[in-house]
Input
Amino acid sequence: MARTLTTPDVSGLTVQPGALSCSRADFFLSNRGFTVNQTDDVIVRLEGVSKHYGATTALDGVDFACKAGEIHAVLGENGAGKSTLMKLISGVIQPSDGRIFVDGEETPLPTPRAAVERGLVCMFQELSLVPDLSVRENLMLGAPGSGLGRLPGAIVRRAQEVLAQIDGGGIGMGARVADLSLAERQQVEIAKAFARNPRLLILDEATSALNASVVDKVFTLIRAECARGVGVLFISHRFHEIEALADRISIFRNGALVDSFANGAHDYPAIISRMVGQKITDLFPAKPRARPEAQEVLRIDDFGWNGELTDVSITLRKGCITGLGGLDGQGQAAVLQGLFGLLKKTEGGIVLAGQPITLNSPGDAKNPDIGIALVPEDRKTEALILQQSIAANMELAAVGVRGINAEDPALYQPYTDALELKCESLDQPVSQLSGGNQQKVALTKWLALEPRCLLLADPTRGIDVKTKTQIYALLRRLADQGTAILLLSTDYEEFIHLCDETHIFYDGRVVRHLTGDAVTAENILAATLNIPAQQAAHG
Amino acid sequence: MSTRSKRLPDPDTLMPFAGAIVMILGGSLFFPQILGLGYLGQQLQIASFLGVIAMGATVVILLGHIDLSVPWIVGGAAILSTSLAGTGDPVLTALAIPAALVFGAIIGLINGFGVAILRIPSMVWTLAVNSMLLGLAVLNTGGFNPKGEASATMIWMASGTVGGIPTAFALWMLLTALLALFLGRTGFGRYLSSIGYNEKATFLSGVSTPSVIFAAFAIAGLCSAFGGVLLAGYANQAYQSMGDPYLLPTIAAVVIGGTSILGGRGRLLGTVGGVLFITLLTSILSVMQISNAWRSIIFGVIIIVMLLIQTLRRKES
Output
């Protein structure tokens, strides 16, 4: 500890950083004076760090520091440089310019292993588990002390403890990762990171696939680690999460650190305008008056499947956005799958415009007579073919559909324009796009078919705020034009501000149907946990 | 919105053609007769047999699968067609070629069934099918070379000429053009490479992926069977395991032609180049006065060099 106490001063004096980092060094020094007992020290410091990819500048002369015992939230749009920053600190990539200090000593981090050895543990946004290995094997993969010789069993026990604390106790150690749901995989990622005894824990979109109650538990765990003196770097696109968790907030824009301040110093609109560089008045479009009597488009009656879904009845109306919420794996995803012809042997009926229909495959569902489209949850493996061009991806659903010329760019342009798709050319492979732009391609691909009913599985997961507003605005406009939209989400703000009504699932059933003023955060949370609303209000 | 560029032959596709030309020119330094029309015409004729088979293999490999039943579809089609033609009955003789093609298509559908419906890895399933076809052929012929002979049409297709060019080569080019047109103009070609990259995402785009897999294996079966018919016409007979020497060169030709063995990326035109390259390489090596051992080593090294050039170039871009 003595080493970490003295060295920052020296480096603060010897190097001549910009004014910003100078003042920050002063801030650290003065702060230390008050809190000597707490481990209020800088673990990692970046000085004038830049990263170029060819002609693209991902990070431009950034000075940045993370301290022990502090939860430091990093905000920014996709492509602002957040992930690049994380990759630099965790040794995945090397800076083109500038220096990295660990515990005050200039330390190059040539490999992820070098970073882990210094206690810098990163949980990546791109899920980094090996799908074909078991959970146990993934936890041990690259763990400190592994390699030749005995495998460290302690790390698995520690990970199991962590999993138990975040509702992941049911995940078997022998289970193949590919067989886990997206949320379960994320829980394993979290456990893997915590089990490595980090000194600095980097969480890049760590909770994007998790629902509110699990997120709460993850946060409890993060706070506990933080109280032990672990530093946390936290990236999230959910504002309420950042507000609940962060001590300090840094905002990145176009590869530069724009501002850094204590949580609470600025309100949402101020933070958002700093992130975007322009004023975004509202995240969500204005919600029109509820239209409970609007024309029915699609209805499912007493829908059931394989014990995972029981007696679900939902009506989708013209111009309405209907939300599906609940804890992970409560059956809401199966509703989307059933409506897209992905489930075999379903019970109950699907009624489209008054006619009972059967759907046996996605091909049936996208048939223009039916007109159902699904934008799946996992962009990278389900929604898009990453190696193919933007054009090929957008055309894939439309090719072979009666009455549509899939190669006509006019089919896609209205949607790529409305969503402001950023790309060099439509021949560019989708893999080169940022997550937000990938999602725009996935949406356009299906919107071009002009579906009567649009099914969306968490379309804003891990997406920056500007893209979110674009997607929300487009969804509202489509609804106004008469599309019925069914939106599965893990972000309850979407139910409150975007959806006209919301069905909350628990154990394969709809436990609450919330409409109008009843759609509140309290009611949603209570329903997801299947406790009556009043009780939750008291508790 | 930016415009889309027209698809021009990419370097991946042109590489094997360039390689073939370099080999002809290089070989001619030692053996000037390589530049003769007689020699080159003969190479085109021989390349056609491999070419027809590799055309079908490209379709399956684009899909991300592999067809290891090539040898005995070739052998079976050859046995079937020569047996029918060997009866001397005019009706059966006329049926020789269609019967062989139907045989190939049926085996292709069986391959498709195992891969698309039973979800057994194609490498295992088609290997098993190949083994069963071998067994059936031995049961049928008692292990001896089957009796029979090629029909006149078969001999003309394999050894004749049309307007000065070998008929086999003309047929190969015609079929390649037709298949390329089919892949380029229909959703099928697009689905092939989409499935090769990501079958799940393709299925979730509303594509009936099982039908595509069935069709691809059926096309491969047809091509292999037609290759068998040509070979039987060339040799004027069928013999046990006549398809065996064609399995690995087929795969090598497809891969050298720039098609990814993992599926998704590739062009039919590249396979044509790959076939010409492999055929010329084999031929030039065989006229050189070196031992078989060195011939095999050089063959392997040149193929690795070709693939390395392709891989390194792709990494750079």
In short: The mean pLDDT of chain A is 83.
